[in-house]
Amino acid sequence: MKGGTTTDWREQELAQWYNKNMRGSLEGYASLFGFDKNDAVLDLGCGDGTLLAIAAQQGARVTGVDISDVQLAASRQALKGVKGATLIKSTLQEVNFPEQSFTKVSIRKAIHHLTNDEKGLLIDKIYHWLKPGGILIIEDMILTFALHRRDENRALVEKDASIYYGSNWPDFRDAFFTTMYQELPCDLAQLTHHLLFTGFHILKIASPACFMSTVIAEK
Ligand SMILES: C[S@@+](CC[C@H](N)C(=O)[O-])C[C@H]1O[C@@H](n2cnc3c(N)ncnc32)[C@H](O)[C@@H]1O
User: Fold this and answer.
1) Does residue 29 lie in a domain region?
2) What spacing in Å lies between the alpha carbon of 46 and ligand 1's midpoint?
3) Are 116 and 48 in contact (CB under 8 A)?
4) Are 61 and 87 in contact (CB under 8 A)?
5) CA 19 / ligand 1 centre spacing (Å)
6) Is residue 149 part of a domain?
7) Which residues have C-beta atoms less than 6 Å from ligand 1?
8) Residue nearest to atom 11 of ligand 1 (CA)
9) Which tens digit of pLDDT belongs to each residue from 56-82?
10) Residue 124 structural domain
11) 194 C-alpha to center of ligand 1: Å?
12) 155: CATH
């Protein structure tokens, strides 16, 4: 498989720990899309299929992509009984679809597994996979300060994280700093650069903490 991942998500324990403890509720995130029966939804790095199941409940046709058999098995379970759902085992670097296949695309907490170039290439591809007026939402560790200023912003990150994660922060701290230093987070300037150069219009950026952003873009 070409184009791997910075963390070995094929490990069952990691996937199960994340899904149980760190994933959080996806209801608020899902509501940003306003899914309905006219939607064809793609979730890249779909994890345990929670977002796909919400979209399917609202009548959308759903497609999920993930590298992990464990996550795909969980997605299959979440989508039990849903007609026409498609699950694809692939890396985000390799997956491909015909032009204008989807109305809404999500990448939640998965783009930090890609290098900056891979992020740009994927965003270019998504632009082609979306129908005109289609929506892309990316939520992840997207820093509100320059990526190379991670160290000097460490105190601010610690402060925001203890508020954002509340009493769970001590349990999440190791995983959080693994993502920040050993995986491939980006900053808002890098991400918006890719989106704008590709042709997307940025509709909204919300950053509830200095390390976490949700970016909504339209084709
Ligand atoms: C932190 S989880 C997020 C899952 C889900 N989107 C959510 O919000 O709960 C990251 C997911 O991305 C998948 N993943 C990691 N690297 C990947 C890659 N290179 N290609 C495809 N999927 C990948 C993992 O298997 C995992 O399910």
Assistant:
1) yes
2) 6
3) no
4) no
5) 11
6) yes
7) 5, 9, 18, 23, 45-47, 66-68, 71, 91-92, 108-110, 113
8) 45
9) 999 999 999 999 999 999 999 999 999
10) 12-218
11) 20
12) 3.40.50.150
